[in-house]
Amino acid sequence: MTESGRRHPVVLYIHGESYEWGSGNPYDGSVLASYTEQVIVTINYRLGVLGFLNANVAPETKARMANYGLMDQIAALHWVQQHIALFGGDPENVSLMGQGTGAACVHFLAISPTVIRGLFKRAILLSGSALSSWAVVEDPVFYALKLARAINCTIPEDLLKDNELIVDCLRESTLEELMQIDIQPPTFLSAFGPSVDGVVIKPDFQKDLLSYLGPEFQGFGPLPKKAEHGAPITSNNKYDLLFGVTTSEALWKFAEKDVHQGFEGERRDRIIRTYVRNAYVYHLTEIFYTIKLGESIYSTFDP
């Protein structure tokens, strides 16, 4: 609390860049704090295999915790509630902000039934959301098995029944052994990141989110708030939401030569095809030509 007795709003920032590398340490909140008179909190959370390993083949019927990176973020929110007043912050006025993959994490927490009411009041999504094509790992078991084979773990015949044996084997490995294994995902995607585990992220969360927007989106009508087995799909908590994007925010994925000199249409088309093939399952041709058409219109009218 300040000398005047007033507590300041709090911003908890979740860093992005990647689900597999990064840190909250480089983000200096002092400038934002001085201009806005807010308390800025940055955090670290488990990444990669330590934060998001998921070997559960049936999360819709057998929920098992897998999103430990998201649980670290929830733990940070609890810490803020308990201690931020000692730093002049108001625990009842907390905004959760993230950029890129961090924004997707913020969105996952906003819709997760694991997050209790009152941990934060507002969600700020910068260049990402839980509905982004790269936000969730669609087949986490595939990457868990690749890692297990690289460590020489025995793969059980019945994955549905004995998937925990894979996790137990990996836990016996040293951190150095795990970090030496390089699992390469498709371009633009992650091998280890948030995935449906039935606990923090429920099955069919995308459909549930789109139902709020109306039946004209993706052909989904309003869905019930409970899954067939009775567990809530998403949280009933309500938050103020601010979100936005910027131009050229994916430039860091390209080589320096491409950024400064550009590239020809043929290479552009290959990049778009790679992205569409890796990020989507259905209507790939339609999506490809929609992106190309949008790019052509932008180029035509760009002064």
TrEMBL record:
<dbReference type="InterPro" id="IPR051093">
    <property type="entry name" value="Neuroligin/BSAL"/>
</dbReference>
<dbReference type="InterPro" id="IPR029058">
    <property type="entry name" value="AB_hydrolase_fold"/>
</dbReference>
<dbReference type="InterPro" id="IPR002018">
    <property type="entry name" value="CarbesteraseB"/>
</dbReference>
<keyword id="KW-0325">Glycoprotein</keyword>
<dbReference type="Pfam" id="PF00135">
    <property type="entry name" value="COesterase"/>
</dbReference>
<protein>
    <recommendedName>
        <fullName>Carboxylesterase type B domain-containing protein</fullName>
    </recommendedName>
</protein>
<feature type="domain" description="Carboxylesterase type B">
    <location>
        <begin position="3"/>
        <end position="285"/>
    </location>
</feature>
<comment type="similarity">
    <text>Belongs to the type-B carboxylesterase/lipase family.</text>
</comment>
